[in-house]
Design a protein that fits this description.
The complex is a heterodimer of chains A (237) and B (394). Chain A has 237 residues and is of the alpha/beta class. Helix content of chain A is 30%, strand content 27%. The longest helix of chain B is centred in the N-terminal third of the chain and has 39 residues, at 13-51. Chain B is elongated. Chain B folds into 2 domains: 4-44 and 271-391, no CATH class; 61-189 and 224-251, no CATH class. Classes of the chains: A alpha/beta (237), B alpha+beta (394).
Chain lengths: 237, 394
């Protein structure tokens, strides 16, 4: 049973096009990230990182393979769960290179929007949002608009948004790219703390040399395939 | 659930309000065009109401006296009075011309009336009705004339003895009421030089060489026994159609009832103008729709990344469509309020009557909401086509 928690990908393939023009972007990807674990996913441009991220994010359907989130089967060789939109809302948190906060909502409502979309009351959603903002040390900016925040604060709010529905997995796409070393390490520290606290599996796609040494496990992706290696797992202080 | 549309509008309220004001001015023009049409119809109805007539007796086979020229002898009213069911009958003339006061000219409809008879202005704001047979006038205040002023019509001066209001022709020209005899002279008689010239030409005609014949012909040329119409009021209990029948049959005249005259004025006289205004309304509606569509589309395209993120984190398509549609409707509501206020403020400045009816405003509001909904469809379509994958790099 323990094996089925977190995110498990088995033999995932993705082919674009058909016949002579077909391109295999992913070839037999296998990954397993357990709850509370933060792993790195690295690879050169064109290696298939973005395609894998889109498959993991239930944005595009893989051609073959199986993906399990917690106890829930998402894809299984051509079969896929019906409501991918609700799946993304309730089971997957996203953190992007740029925070992509909604510019016309204040910090609290940017975070509270997800539980609201899931049908929770405004009061309950805001309560959850504020609790996360306090945990991420940005509660003092709860009423501020995104444009009034620093880059680091915006990224913390984005992490709060990713966590607010307590999803089993968070996909972070280059979350530290625009940040300096100190802030980049701070973001990774927060992701590790939150992964532990909320027992969330976190996959960080990155090129950032500053943070790669912090991962205990790293998946390398090359030519559409993955191989796993142990990371340095440097202490984050 | 919070209103995403309201939050977005509040966030960019300056842009939104300024856009709404611009749209509102266009809507104001549209409402005013509708008001111009309503004003024309109202002018036509006012003309009928103020005449006090139940029937109009005019020259046979004409649509007179308002839509076509009509000329009937001024003594036929006596025989009309003898027709069963006729209560009162009075001659009337209508002539649109420039009326002069000092250095100013005013375009007006000069109405020749018999005092205390049908055709006389029904109400006065100041002064009194015409009591003398000559050289007195009652004028609509839109002429700008004042009590006691002297105005000039053709060769004679008239003293303004009364002021009235909303007495206008179907074309919106204010009315000037003068005694019938004076009006007949103004309409039918020529100036002195023309009269002398006409007499000389007649005298030179060998057909009229006999002195008694020549005198008779010249006398007939100098008299003006014509009016444009006879206004008839009928006794209670008689139908206009029944009373009209013997007049048409035996007098060889055309008789119009009130309903028929309204049909002539509204459906025929201002028909072309109505079509003109209708074309303007259609064009303005299309332009408004295009502007709303363009603005909403542009605003939506500016939020593509946010929409992709919203879709990625699980926002329903209908929530996104609702946000765009609500913004379009909001823009329309702002535009309508600005347009209604603008039209109300500038309508009195128009030279002709502009009638802004609440029913038109309501219909306009509904039309604007529908236009905004339709105009937002383009932006909604674009937003729904946004791939949530766009939020993820690569």
């Amino acid at each position: 049973m323990e094996e089925s928690k977190g995110i498990l990908i088995e033999g995932m393939r993705k082919r674009y096009g058909e016949g002579d023009t077909a391109v295999d972007a992913l070839k037999a990807v296998n990954m397993h990230v357990t709850p509370g674990e933060v792993v790195g996913l690295i690879g050169p441009s064109g290696s298939g990182k973005s395609t894998l991220l889109k498959c993991l994010g239930a944005v595009i359907e893989p051609t073959a393979g199986r993906m399990t989130l917690g106890n829930k089967v998402i894809y299984d060789n051509g079969w896929q769960i019906k409501d991918l939109r609700a799946l993304r809302r309730d089971n997957i948190g996203f953190v992007f290179q740029a925070p992509y906060l909604i510019p016309f909502l204040d910090v609290t409502d940017n975070v509270a929007l997800l539980p609201m979309l899931a049908g929770h009351s405004n009061a309950e959603s805001r309560k959850r949002a504020v609790a996360l903002l306090e945990a991420l040390d940005v509660a003092h900016r709860a009423k501020a608009m995104p444009s009034q925040l620093s880059g680091g604060e915006q990224q913390r709010v984005a992490i709060a948004r990713a966590l607010v529905n307590q999803p089993p997995v968070i996909l972070a796409d280059e979350p530290t790219a625009p940040l300096d070393s100190e802030r980049a390490l701070s973001v990774i520290r927060i992701l590790n703390q939150m992964a532990q606290q909320y027992q969330t599996a976190v996959i960080v796609v990155t090129h950032d040399e500053k943070i790669i040494p912090t991962f205990k496990r790293i998946y390398h992706i090359r030519d559409g395939g993955t191989h796993e290696e142990a990371g340095e797992g440097q202490a984050l202080g | 659930m919070i209103s995403l549309a309201a939050r977005d509008v509040l966030h960019t309220w300056g842009k939104f309000v300024f856009t709404g004001v611009g749209l509102g001015l266009l809507i104001g023009v549209t409402l005013t065009m509708a008001g111009v049409y309503r004003g024309m119809v109202d002018d036509a109805k006012v003309l009928l109401n103020n005449s006090g007539a139940d029937m109009w007796v005019v020259q046979k086979n004409t649509l007179g006296p308002y839509a076509e020229p009509s000329s009937v002898h001024d003594d036929i009213y006596r025989s009309i009075l003898a027709v069963p069911g006729v209560d009162r009958a009075a001659n009337v003339t209508y002539l649109t011309m420039q009326v002069r006061q000092g250095e100013h000219d005013v375009r007006a409809m000069v109405v020749g009336i018999i005092p205390n008879s049908p055709g006389e202005p029904s109400h006065l704001l100041a002064g009194r009705q015409i009591t003398r047979s000559h050289y007195e006038a009652v004028v609509d205040i839109a002429t700008g004339f004042k009590l006691g002023q002297t105005i000039r019509i053709r060769r004679h001066n008239y003293t303004v003895v009364g002021l009235t209001r909303r007495m206008v022709s179907s074309g919106g020209d204010p009315m000037v009421f003068i005694p019938l005899r004076d009006a007949q002279e103004a309409q039918f008689l020529k100036d002195n030089d023309a009269i002398i010239n006409e007499r000389n030409r007649t005298a030179a005609n060998p057909a009229f060489s006999h002195p008694e014949v020549l005198d008779a012909v010249i006398n007939s040329q100098s008299s003006n026994p014509f009016v444009n119409a006879v206004l008839v009021q009928i006794k209670p209990g008689f139908s206009a159609e029944k009373v009209a029948e013997p007049i048409q049959r035996w007098q060889r005249l055309q008789v119009y009832t009130r309903d028929q005259m309204e049909e002539i004025l509204v459906a025929k006289l201002i028909a072309t103008s109505s079509k003109q205004i209708a074309m303007f309304l259609v064009i303005l509606a299309i332009v408004s729709a295009a502007i709303v569509a363009f603005i909403i589309y542009t605003l939506t395209m500016g939020k593509i990344r946010e929409i992709a993120v919203l879709k990625l984190i699980g926002t329903r398509n209908r929530t996104i469509a609702g946000m765009i549609m609500q913004q379009a409707i909001g823009l329309g509501v702002i535009g309508f309020v600005v347009g209604k206020v603008s039209a109300t403020l500038w309508a009195p400045m128009f030279p002709k009557y502009v009638l802004l009816e609440p029913g038109d405003a309501l219909r306009g509001f509904i039309a604007i909401v529908i236009i905004c909904i339709l105009a937002s469809l383009l932006a909604i379509r674009a937003a729904l086509k946004v791939d949530p994958a766009e939020a993820i790099g690569g």
